Amino acid sequence: MSSSPAFASSIADDGSVSMENDLKYLHGRVDPGQDDSIGLLETIPTTDPRLVDSQMSPATDGEKGVTPSADTISPPETLDVTGLKKHSLTDLPSELVDQILSLLSAVDLVRVSSTCRLLSTLATSDLAWYHHVQDNVPGVKLTSPAPCTSYRELYQMHDPHWFLTKYKIWFCDFFLTGKLILVRYDPRRGCIEGYRLVAERQPPQFRPWEFDDEVIIHSFEPHVRLHLDQPVIQLDALSLESLMASSVKSARAGHRFSAETPMRLGASHARPIFSNFLLTRPVTPRPNMQLWPPLTIPARERVRNASQEQFVGVGHKPQNRSEVSDQAFRIRQWMEMTLGQSPGVHLGEEVFTYATLDPALYTPTKDKPWRGIWMGDYSGHGVEFLLMHQPETEAFDEASVVQRPDETPAEWKERKIEARKYRGRLEAIKLTGDPNVPRGEHTFIVDDLGEDGYIRTVTEKTFHGARIVKSRGHIAARMFRNDKYIESQLILISGDRLAQYWVGFGHISFYDRVNIDSFLSPYQDIRQNNCFKK
């Protein structure tokens, strides 16, 4: 599938999206496309967001990666079993046993199946294994274990890779620009596949803002799709075991977790690029350690993303199941030039580290309505993907909103809704970036959506009724040099659309929410592609 020439950004043969285009962008004041312009804008004092308490891990005590202190652990209560009649699990009706088995993890289900013949029969049934597969493939309703003969076999064929489809959103440390991929399960082929999420926009239209005719509004109507021409991940159920076996040179029991899994991604003489999938293990962060995801993004696990030995050392690889991270993985990629029947030579080998996001970070709530995955307009750099992060705040106290003497009950109720909605911080963090402000960095920060940050409510036609709050825009020269925060304003149009007024640049650009779940079903690909062609 080739990119339409009507769109500004282009996709190269290797799947990379051009970060520059030849379109002309109008700005009411300073041109952000010129590095010399940065010195003309006033810097706003800021605190490093990495040091803010709200940036800590979203995990709670008891989750993976968090160890409760001894003082917080209560001793278990002793149950008095005197006089109780002992019963075996196998004495229960099979329906009850099935219900109990449904509460077990896949690993525990395997252990139970080795205890006796009755439990083996129940623990290996499709009823017991169906939900273990279904729970890991959001967006797809399974009706058959094909191409396998049972759901237990299907689960086994893709173990331990089900976390890829379970968490679905993955972003990588590709230099400066990064990549955002969506991993899903295709029941038609029984494979786990991951594709880049890309967005293209039409040539922009410009119009003045009636509130200030020196400010230019840039139109933004992007089209989002998966780059289906070139998968980033493809793990086939029927060939997974044989592919793994072909790379195994050791018979150690833990080797399946440390071995690299070759992926069939359409390598040919015309495109001799090869890829291996690598599991990874979490690390305990230390000062000056290069980590992924970056500290700007809350995470319960982080892994290293720098290695002088290209991550071939044992210390980077899990040796058993308990060491496998379900929050990160790596892909080793290289070109191979062959001469006749001789082995190919690896050229340009690179290793990219991918991490996922805690679903709580991008799932909007009544109190945090702007959480989510968004895309933003970055003029000549094209469209970039962002995490709109609203850190947790104290629970809202309705009693803090006191009814005013001249206020009706309806007005009071509306003000309480607004007080709940407009409070706390909003941080826009780049999942993909550009040569100026790269992936993993903030693009803007709103310190307070509430009264302390309030500027005005729009009364003019454009953005009518929207709330405008103070924000700090993040800019830098190329290669992220001389970065600083400048004055800007965020226009809260709706829960699915925002606009950023870059005061010094004299222009307004838009941000739209991305519906990630609309790309999870392979059956929707044809419809989305037809929409793109229109």
From TrEMBL:
Pathway the protein takes part in: Protein modification; protein ubiquitination
Biological process terms in GO annotation: protein ubiquitination
Name the record gives this protein: F-box domain-containing protein
Annotated segments matching region Disordered: 49-78
Superkingdom of this protein's organism: Eukaryota
The species this protein was found in: Coleophoma crateriformis
Keywords: Ubl conjugation pathway
Sequence ranges assigned to domain F-box in this UniProt record: 86-132
InterPro entries: F-box-like_dom_sf, F-box_dom, FBXO31/39
